[in-house]
Design goal:
Layout: H1 14-25, H2 34-47, E1 51-55, H3 58-68, E2 75-80, H4 89-93, E3 97-101, H5 111-120, E4 125-131, H6 140-149, E5 153-157, E6 165-166, E7 169-170, E8 177-181, E9 194-198, H7 201-211, H8 234-263, E10 280-283, H9 287-299, E11 305-306, E12 321-323, H10 326-334, E13 335-338, H11 346-358
Parallel strand pairs: 2-3, 2-4, 3-12, 4-5, 5-8
Antiparallel strand pairs: 1-9, 6-7, 8-9, 10-13, 11-13
Helix pairs in contact: 1-8, 2-8, 3-7
The chain binds pyridoxal-5'-phosphate.
């Protein structure tokens, strides 16, 4: 059997190993250290933000933000239905009311439906968690205007969108705060990790403090609230620092893979300017076509998977409100995420092409 082609495996090598060795040799293998500091500085620069706080995952980054805003049942949190569960999970755990909004054809949150949801909300406090789906940025300008008009806190989940842009604005730059993920399958990885990006010094300080058990600035361990242990270790920061230096080359390779898939044809999501091409989507004719394509790829030892199952179809969120729903349902029914890893070779792409050829309309 030929070697397995994964969806989006980590792409690491000597640069990452050397940086980890440097951290190791200097004995900075505890949570804090110069590599994680430099990684944060690099992330803030990438996102065009004043502050970046590196944490243990994208989910932890969202959880800390929910904690900083003291989310509870008085809040309504409106987010995309077409996303990974972590966009909604931290708000769910804090008892906030959840409302989901359908996508437009780009796959991102439909701003007209978001307006409808904000108008309908009777909650005293509102938060919008917009998701840059599959590395394709939302329209930040429109979202910010809308959230300001309705007094809603805007958080952008850019977990999948490191290195992407909305016009001249980098992902991570929109809203009161945004988050990145460095999970193993993301554009850059620290094996597991995430970050909060913000211009607000109060939010940055609160996120940092709460990620470190909320210890007061005091000689002994003094606590006025209970925090979390969500820090990113310096060793993982070292991996991230090396990955960040490679990001331009990674984006170039991802764009070449996307161009390849587009050139061979078939229905896909419409291109979005500035996307980072994290995962490439192929839309089959129908649900049976989706499953057949995934099975045919699997038979050739090639990993693929359906587009995210919308949150409004998940049993756990069956009580939540949904605005629209048909587009995300259709994308789920027909969408297949194709292998898109930075390390894909021409031979790997040929193996995927061979299967795709059989599924051409
Ligand atoms: C849209 C989205 N939000 C949040 C997360 C959570 O990130 P992490 O896996 O680092 O916790 C992910 C991915 O994993 C994601 O795809």
């Amino acid at each position: 059997m030929s070697k397995r082609i994964f969806l989006s495996p980590p792409y690491v090598g000597k640069a990452e190993r050397d940086m980890v060795a440097q951290a190791f040799d200097s004995n900075y293998i505890a949570p804090c250290g110069p590599q994680v500091d430099a990684f944060e500085a690099g992330l803030a620069k990438l996102a065009g933000r004043r502050f970046a706080v590196a944490v243990s995952s994208g989910t932890a980054a969202l959880d800390l933000l929910m904690d900083c805003f003291e989310l509870d049942s008085s809040w309504e949190v409106i987010t995309s239905s077409l996303t990974f569960i972590a966009s909604a999970g931290p708000a769910y755990h804090r008892g906030a009311r959840l409302a989901f909004v359908d996508s437009d054809r780009s796959g991102n949150l439909d701003v007209r439906l978001l307006e409808k949801a904000l108008k309908a909300s009777r909650a005293p406090r509102k938060m919008v968690i917009a998701v840059d789906l599959y590395g394709r940025c939302c329209d930040y300008g429109k979202l910010e205007k809308l959230c300001t008009r309705f007094g809603a806190v805007l958080i952008v989940d850019s977990a999948e969108a490191v290195g992407a842009k909305c016009g001249v604005r980098p992902s991570g730059s929109a809203g009161v705060a945004a988050i990145y993920s460095f999970n193993g399958n993301k554009i850059i990885t620290t094996s597991g990790g995430g970050a909060v990006l913000t211009d607000d010094p109060g939010i940055a300080a609160a996120v940092r403090k709460r990620s470190q058990q909320a210890r007061e600035n005091c000689l002994w361990y003094e606590h006025e609230r209970v925090g979390y242990n969500y820090r990113l270790s310096n060793i993982l920061g070292a991996i991230g620092l090396a990955q960040l230096a490679r990001l331009p080359a990674i984006l170039k390779k991802r764009a070449a893979i996307a161009a390849h898939y587009r050139a061979i044809g078939g229905e896909s999501l419409p291109p979005v300017a500035g996307e980072n091409h994290w995962l490439n989507i192929r839309l089959a004719k129908d649900e049976a076509g989706r499953d057949a394509l995934i099975a045919a790829l699997a038979a050739e030892n090639i990993e693929s998977r359906p587009v995210w199952k919308p949150m409004h179809l998940q049993k756990v969120f069956c009580g939540a409100k949904i605005y629209g729903g048909k587009i995300s349902e259709d994308l789920f029914r027909r969408g297949v995420c194709l292998p898109s890893g930075t390390g894909m070779t021409a031979a790997d792409l040929r193996r995927v092409d061979k299967v795709l050829e059989r599924f051409k309309a």
